[in-house]
Design a protein that fits this description.
Largest sheet: 7 strands, parallel
Helix content: 25-40%
Number of strands: 13
Shape: globular
Strand order of the largest sheet: 3-2-1-4-5-6-7
Distance between the termini: 47 Å
Number of helices: 15
Strand content: 5-15%
Radius of gyration: 21 Å
Oligomer: single chain
């Protein structure tokens, strides 16, 4: 049983448990950022798995009797789901993972998922870097390799498209000035060739949520646009079907495009860094400039980059065999005891306004100001320490 809430995790979780070797289904957990019905349809397009919505209070009953639970959610939500699953008797094997590009490996990704038995990653490089980080931090975790569900192999295209598709991201780039620069680039690319469309591919309509909260949306920044600059909320697979090429900063859509034989430009205007989540494209040959975008000089990934980064041989995958081994011989693991107050706080962080208990409201009145002061103190210490 996969448990997810936001668009990217729903898409990933549903696709992973749709593996023919797995008898899987999906629960969409009610949180502040839960997918709308339209987002859910887009995220599960072409995937045949049973789907239902549920609250956290219903989750214990739903997960009872499962051999394995896939925790497919943002860190604070993943922590609460994993604890819920870990308290079941018999305890299911708890699997987790990240829905796309996970380079650089981060301590927080591991920290929130400590109760999980198996961490699924999608490239040899990710497995290596997360393994090194877990060892460095003293975190006991097993890692397994799975082909990114929507990037299975590199295929030849049957027909060429004409659209320049931009895969927008909520927090990359983060600064308003940078996002305005991207918006102006889209307008310039559309004006350069009025006969071909520029498609701004978004993952949520106004009022819908994404995995990350967006403060400066591109439709608000565009201003007056040429008629050939259009906005699309279609599934990415549908957008790529009519694409001449895809442009992004670091979206996993670049991997999905490469798998479909669609060339890519990974925009390097803002540099290459862990914050931009584009370190993984070093050596890929995909980086390009704003002029490359306007002139539509797309490129395919370098062959030498593929095997280490998302396009390994299917035979290299280990996640199903690792899961089978854990189900056959489960490892006894204790659930660390935490105070009732801390559990209420963590539940509040996971569910947000969907947690309507009086305990949640009470802890929020104290917890949020306290957390602000702690973070402020850390910043001051960093600046003057």
């Amino acid at each position: 049983m996969a448990v997810a809430d936001t668009d990217s995790y729903v898409k990933w979780g549903a696709a992973l448990v749709a593996d023919p070797r797995v008898d899987g289904s999906l629960v969409v957990l009610d949180t502040d950022l839960v997918v709308s019905d339209a987002q859910l349809r887009a995220a599960t397009a072409g995937v045949d798995v049973p789907v239902r919505r549920a609250t956290l209070d219903e989750l214990t009953g739903i997960l009872a009797g499962c051999d394995a639970v896939l925790v497919a959610a943002r860190g604070p939500v993943a922590r609460v789901i994993a604890r819920t699953a870990a308290r079941l008797s018999p305890r299911p094997v708890i699997v987790t993972g990240l829905p796309g590009i996970s380079i650089p490996a981060t301590w927080r990704a591991l920290h929130y998922r400590r109760l999980c038995d198996l961490f699924v990653l999608h490239s040899h490089r990710e497995v290596r870097e997360f393994g090194e980080l877990a060892h460095e931090r003293g975190i006991e975790q097993s890692f397994a390799l799975a082909t990114l569900p929507f990037a299975r192999g590199v295929h030849e295209r049957e027909s060429e498209g004409t659209d320049l598709v931009f895969a927008a991201q909520a927090i990359v780039p983060r600064e308003r000035e940078d996002r305005i620069r991207v918006a102006r680039l889209l307008v310039a690319a559309a004006a350069a060739d009025p006969s071909r469309r520029v498609v701004l591919k978004l993952r949520g309509k106004p009022g819908e949520h994404e995995t990350h909260r967006e403060t400066d949306s591109y439709p608000e920044l565009l201003g007056e646009t040429p008629p050939n600059l259009v906005v699309s909320y279609a599934p990415m697979s549908e957008a790529l079907a009519s694409a001449e090429g895809l442009m992004t900063v670091s979206s996993t859509a670049a991997i999905e495009a490469a798998a479909q034989g669609v060339p890519v430009i990974a925009l390097d205007t803002f540099g290459v860094s862990g914050e931009l989540i584009n370190l993984v494209f070093e050596g890929s040959g995909l980086f390009g400039s704003e002029d490359d975008v306007i002139d539509r000089r797309f490129r395919h990934p370098a062959p030498g980059w593929l095997a280490e980064n998302y396009f390994h041989e299917p035979a290299d995958d280990t996640w199903v065999s690792a899961l089978e081994a854990l189900i056959a011989d489960p490892r006894p693991r204790e659930v660390p005891r935490i105070s009732g107050l801390r559990e209420v706080w963590e539940r509040h962080l996971a569910l947000g306004s969907r947690d309507r208990t009086w305990q949640s409201r009470a802890v929020a009145l104290v917890g949020h100001p306290a957390r602000f002061l702690v973070r402020l103190a850390r910043r001051v210490k960093h600046l003057f320490g």
